[in-house]
Write a structure and sequence with these properties.
Elements: E1 6-14, E2 17-22, E3 25-31, H1 33-42, E4 48-52, H2 57-73, E5 78-81, H3 87-96, E6 100-103, H4 105-109, H5 112-121, E7 126-134, E8 142-146, E9 151-156, H6 157-167, E10 171-176, H7 188-197, E11 202-205, H8 211-219, E12 224-227, H9 229-232, H10 238-247
Parallel strand pairs: 1-4, 1-12, 4-5, 5-6, 6-7, 7-10, 10-11, 11-12
Antiparallel strand pairs: 1-2, 2-3, 7-8, 8-9
């Protein structure tokens, strides 16, 4: 039985505001996170993802308050990432109202934290936020990046996705740093490579610009489709994307 595709707006939050740029630079203000969350929930989003891209200690406090406010106003699952490094960090976010928690740098620094979080909370709460780009010298041709794609982690992206899934990650949010914010389409080759490597649900992120781009990502095996710019600036609505997917023969919620 096929599982319905999920369409997920992403809110990149910096100092309590939603921002969006190209390749994580030249950030523009896109609005209040709670207002946007309520709008997307009403528009038919299946989930929401919040990424605290500054993730300072002050930012984390802001994030907790924002998550609580959003959880009180929307009734769809919330995934929250940014600065997660421990079981305690996950506990705080879940108690604040998050349904799932994204982890990135914390897992790269100490991979055992994936096992620890999965053991305490179950793998269904844990999302690997994988910021990857094409990188010569990596066995797969794709490398993991940190610091908004500016720094190579020196780790093969496909091998890392496989290790994280083996350790207990519940799903992989694959963000192409090359495509991020460009609206030129998802990196289908990279999506295909990760899809072949892991059995957990795969969320495509980075580069959506047209309805066809979402259909293309679904065709290579994405289970969920995440976008920011096209939704924030009104290029597409969630209804547009779902209608296109439905028209292409995919089941949507």
């Amino acid at each position: 039985m096929s599982v319905a595709l999920r369409v997920i707006p992403c809110l990149d939050v910096h100092d309590g505001r939603v921002v969006k740029g190209v390749n994580f630079t030249n950030l523009r203000d896109a609005g209040d996170p709670v207002e946007l969350a309520a709008r997307y929930s009403a528009d038919g989003a299946d989930e929401l993802t919040f990424l605290d891209i500054s993730a300072s200690s002050d930012g984390r406090a802001t994030t907790r308050e924002m998550v609580t406010r959003c959880a009180e106003s929307v009734f769809i699952p919330l995934t929250v990432g940014g600065g997660v490094r421990s079981v305690e960090d996950v506990d705080v976010l879940l108690r604040s109202g998050a349904d799932k928690v994204g982890i990135n740098t914390g897992a790269l620094a100490r991979p055992d934290v994936i096992d620890e979080i999965a053991r305490v909370f179950g793998n269904q709460v844990l999302v690997l936020s994988l910021d990857a780009r094409r990188e010569a010298g990596m066995p797969s041709g794709y490398g993991v990046t940190t610091h908004g794609g500016r720094r190579s982690a020196g780790i093969d992206a496909i091998a890392w996705a496989r290790e994280a899934a083996d350790r207990g990650i519940g799903e992989v949010l694959l963000n192409s740093m090359d495509a991020d914010g460009t609206t030129d389409g998802f990196d289908l080759d990279m999506l295909r490579a990760v899809r072949d490597a892991v059995d957990v649900p795969l969320i495509a992120s980075g580069g959506a610009g047209t309805v066809q781009h979402f259909i293309d990502a679904a065709a290579v095996g994405a289970d969920a489709l995440l976008a920011a710019s096209v939704f924030h600036y009104g290029t597409l609505t969630i209804a547009d994307v779902k209608a296109g997917l439905r028209g292409a023969g995919y089941e949507v919620r």
